Structure formats: structure tokens, C-alpha cells
């Protein structure tokens, strides 16, 4: 019996016995069929998705108003996977053909989950934004997970994320002499997008193996997918090490990224009450936003343009300050704007507050009349994402055409990278095109100021190291 017909028959029986069912996601939120809306997979259809190593299938063994279950099946082509592995590693032994990959939720399932549910992982739904943003009762079942660390590690990884965890060692017939495989069941009130990101990151961590080539791009995947929860996780060192195949340079880059993008969620209780230690207790992104807000307040600006606004952290601070009557966030990425819209809760924002804020899609290297007419513009951790050859275009757009009274630019200080354990030529972010030492940034800033009729002062942001300076450098440009 083929996989599709086999899946349909199992659905009619209401039970799951096929060895390729590696993941089920169940909700009892009413109407439970909203799960299909969030996953963007219709409950009445069996859908297939080709992968480089086989085929993934999504179907629903049950789909009612009170309970709905989505199942992800994986049909691994052992020969195709072995050929791919042999090309990458030079290993063409029999174990590449005979292994547990078709029967266990390994890194291959994480890859399939990431692609099949890519839209759901973003946490954005144009059709039902309030549904995507809300936690819902979820139960996740993984019949067989290869786990180096056993049931205890499963609990240590998932319980800090708010899950109730059931995990027990189970033999996988024909493969398991030492019960390396674990049956896992997770229950909790969690946003679906968060649940998918937990699985996407932690399945390869449990397995402690990735079955594809690991390069520096995996750092970006880890930080982007882990987001807020990863930086705050008590086992983030183990998670980063296993996810990045124990490559120390990648681990250091990941830790620097976590500090730089500052996705950690920290409570006020985590901040020391002693004013002398408060700065050390704050993550760098909070210190950076504070420095930008201080510079804006000193400028007397009432209207602010946040260029490269990302997920909207600076916009949130601006909205909290009534002195700013006109606030615009611009970003080239529609995905980033969607994240900002969700983070700022535009759909729930009061009318008066909403009138102060505008989100627009635009690029700092192309002239845009919407950028004109602001008292101040901010480029916070933006310029380093541009190719150096594009900097003159950005200068013309911001300093020449938009020409606000004040421009604030922040960027990493490359001299401080050694304090993060990075090598001489390593950068904090896989997408950075350059990172400047202090004298290079000063020379650029002074040149821009002279060419466009501004004065500039340069400040360090963050804890000062006697030799390396501060982790962030900031230029505040005021027009003559």
C-alpha cells in the first residue's frame, strides 16, 4: 500500500501505527480546526513536500471543532541520503544506508518541519493575526527521538520553555541495544510559532548530530529561530554547541549574535537595584536604545524616522515617550515589518496612539520622498549590513535628500569583538558586510559631516574596556 493511501486508511481508523509518523500536533482550542489555518495546511487534504532526502507528508488523523491533530510524516530515501552524505563527507560505508533516519525524529525532521511549516514559524497570519499571536493548548507527540542524554535531557531542554514533559526511553527494533531513543510528549499553553521554533532548534540538539553540511550560515538560523527563548535558556551553551556541530568559532559567533540582537526576555527582577551595577545587568540592546533615546531627547526632535526598524524595539520606546508626535519605521524587509506590527500590537493599539505611528517598506540606498520632513533619523545597527560600495548611496539618501536636522548612527566596534571570543577577522553577525574599528568609524563620520554640512560627535555605548573601548559606537550628526 502506498504512503498516501496508507495515511488515509489510518485517518479513518483514527489511530497512528505507521512507523513514519514522526510528529503530531494536537490542539483542543475551539474551534480546533483553526490549527489548519495557522499551519496553512487544509485538514481535508493529504499534502506532500519533496525534500532533498525524501518526501514529507502532512495530514490530519482528526479534525473537529473540539480537537484537531496534524501529523508530519517523513519518507526518507536512504540511498539518496547516503549519496548526499558520501559526497559531503567521503564516507560511503554501509551505515549510511542502514540507520534509524527513516524511523526517528532526527535533524532531518527538523529540516522538513522548517520548510513545510515555514509560514507558521514566522508567527504572522494576515488572515487571523490575533490567532497567530495567542497561546493555545497544544500537545506534541514524537514517538521516537534519537537522544544523546536520555529522558532527563528532554526535560531539561523543554521544561524551561513552559512545557509539561513526558519522556521515556524506548527501544527502536533492529537499532537500539542501548535504548538511545526516547518517546516524547509535550503539553502546554504555547504560541504555535514558538512551539515550532522549539522543535526546529532542539530536535538536532537532542540527536547531537546534523545530517547535512554545517557552515557559518547555521549561526544565523540558530539565532533567528531561537529568538527570545534561546538567549534566556539555562542550557543555551549546550544548545549552541550541539546545534553548531561543536564548532567553537561558530559557538562564539552565536553568543555574540545573541548579545547583539538581544532577543532575550529579561524581567525587572533580573536588573540589579544598585545603580553602579545596573548597566552591567542590562543587555546591550537595552543600553543602545537608551543611548539613542538620550541623543534624541537632547536634539529636541518631535518627529523621528527609524531606518532599518527591524522588529520595532526602538519604535516601542519612542511610542512610550509622548514628546514624539510623529514616528515612522522603515525597513526593506516586509517580514521585519510584519514582526514589528505584531510586536507593537497595532491591531489593538488605540486610535490616538496609532495616528502617531507609520510603518513603511523602503531602502536606505534609494531616494524616497517619504523619508523627508523629519526632525531626526536613526540608523541603529544598519550600516554594517550594507556593502561598502553602497554607503555613498545611503549617505546621499539620508544626509543629502532626506536631510533631517539630526541623524544618529550606531554600529559595532570591531575592536571589542575579541572580548566576545571572536577572531581577528570574525564578525558578530553572518549578514554583516564590515565592522569598523573606532578610528575607521570616526574617519567615515567626519567625512560625511563635512560633505553634507553636519557636525558630528562620537560616543561609546556600553561598558568601556580600557583597551577595546565600548561594544557599540555611536555618531550623532547635527546639521549646521
From TrEMBL:
Belongs to the methyltransferase superfamily. HEN1 family. One of its GO terms (molecular function) is small RNA 2'-O-methyltransferase activity. InterPro entries: 3'-RNA_MeTfrase_Hen1_bac, Hen1, Hen1_N, Hen1_N_sf, Methyltransf_12, SAM-dependent_MTases_sf. SUPFAM superfamilies: S-adenosyl-L-methionine-dependent methyltransferases. It catalyses: small RNA 3'-end nucleotide + S-adenosyl-L-methionine = small RNA 3'-end 2'-O-methylnucleotide + S-adenosyl-L-homocysteine + H(+). The keyword Transferase applies. Residues 21-258 form the Hen1 N-terminal domain. Its cofactor is Mg(2+). PANTHER family: HEN1, SMALL RNA 2'-O-METHYLTRANSFERASE. This is Small RNA 2'-O-methyltransferase. GO terms for biological process: regulatory ncRNA-mediated gene silencing; RNA methylation. Its EC number is 2.1.1.386. The keyword Protein biosynthesis does not apply. NCBIfam families: bacter_Hen1 (TIGR04074). It comes from the Bacteria. Residues 305-393 form the Methyltransferase type domain. Keywords: Magnesium, Metal-binding, Methyltransferase, RNA-binding, RNA-mediated gene silencing, S-adenosyl-L-methionine, Transferase. Pfam families: Hen1_L, Methyltransf_12.
